[in-house]
Specification:
alpha/beta; 22% strand; globular
């Protein structure tokens, strides 16, 4: 039986007296795409940041590749090369070219020689469709292109898992599609991905597992079909109904007439 690549056990995180994560337990299997959805303030991004200890948990365990990475003796920098993260704000060095943003990380973290790092940087830029922008600075790129460079930088580390923290939330609507297309290609290539997202169409189309968070707990989880077509938790139904009302017409992945089972007074056939 295949072991999970990530297993989270009773994870807790507080900021002061406010408990943000209230005992989260979940598994991520190799080559799986896990979409984490839920209202703002539900703990989604905190959960993601705890996965590679950008936020230090107050309790619980995070088992990655068979090792508890909350152990004080773990080399967390080595872990982060294998569990890389793409942020909503790109986090690129504005004074470096796209290629240099990628190659510098490879030279500093993986100790690669310059020519090797630059060669790998070009390969990953090609994978995200930006080989022609290798010498461009972030300020010369659109937001979507900057995020694709950030994805290429993560990909160049050859990680086992990529964490995406709302990767399209800072983008203009017309630029979201180009980033989602790159993420879909990664998913189809077998990359293990954990994605905090408000893009319901992406979650419904690409996720193997969907986790709905609310008030610091996992309120419901299941396949995309289960969550989007037949949610069981009333909070999930309410959230989806609100989201679909707000963005459904703009989201090509969701039928405009979609209503979660039970929201129209009866179960859909």
């Amino acid at each position: 039986m295949t072991e999970p690549i990530i297993e989270i056990i009773d994870l807790r995180k507080s900021f002061g007296d406010h408990e943000v994560l209230c005992g989260i337990s979940m598994k991520v299997m190799p080559k799986e795409v896990v979409a984490i959805i839920g209202p703002s303030g539900s703990g989604k991004s905190t959960l993601l940041r705890c996965m590679n200890l950008l936020n230090e948990p107050n309790g619980g365990k995070i088992i990655f590749l068979g090792h508890d990475i909350t152990d004080k003796d773990i080399d967390i920098n080595a872990v982060r090369t294998q569990m890389n993260m793409v942020f909503q704000s790109f986090n690129l060095f504005m004074h470096l070219t796209a290629k240099r943003n990628i190659s510098l990380a490879l030279m500093k973290v993986k100790k690669m020689k310059k020519h090797e790092a630059e060669e790998l940087a070009m390969q990953t830029l090609d994978k995200v469709g930006l080989s022609d922008k290798a010498d461009a600075y972030p300020g010369e790129l659109s937001g979507g292109q900057q995020q694709r460079v950030a994805i290429a930088r993560a990909l160049a580390m050859e990680p086992k898992v990529i964490l995406f923290d709302e990767p399209t939330s800072a983008l203009d609507p017309e630029l979201i599609g180009e980033v989602l297309d790159v993420m879909k290609a990664l998913a189809l290539s077998g990359m293990t991905m954990v994605v905090v997202t408000h893009e319901m169409g992406f979650a419904r189309e690409m996720a193997d597992q969907v986790i709905f968070m609310d008030q610091g707990v996992i309120a419901e989880q299941g396949t995309a079909e289960q969550i989007f077509v037949n949610p069981q938790n009333p909070r999930t139904k309410t959230f989806l109904k609100r989201i679909l009302k707000e963005v459904g017409a703009l989201d090509p992945g969701i039928p405009s007439d979609f209503v979660p089972n039970g929201e129209n007074g009866q179960d859909n056939p």
